[in-house]
Amino acid sequence: MMRAWILPMLFVLGGSVVATGLILSGVPGEAAALLLLFVLLAVVHSPLVFPRSIGALEAQRRSAVDGRPVVFWRSGCKYCLRLRIRLGRSARQLHWVDIWSDPAGAAVVRAVNDGNETVPTVVVTGRPHVNPDPEWVREQLG
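RESULT FIELD:
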């Protein structure tokens, strides 16, 4: 789980260092604006933006019952973020598996992507789709 928070923590730490330098230079307004930007970047790249992750086995079990797709993702992935943002509220209907916090999820992704952890990988009715169009994923819900 700690791995998912490394990038957001680096954003906050980097923003704090730069903001401190700006404050010491006598430009507190720019420092505040820049720090806010770095904090927003940290939030966007954190697990907070994504629906609560579950384990791969539980996600596959739930998907078999309700037919909803399973999305394998990781924090810091711009394509995962793009998918999440473009899905909007309908993203909550999917089963999300963070491959950095679930080794079984990472194994599933590697198995369908020739050993690579390419995300987002969306599994619909047992068939994997790598980095699918968000509109296509939304259609799979209906």
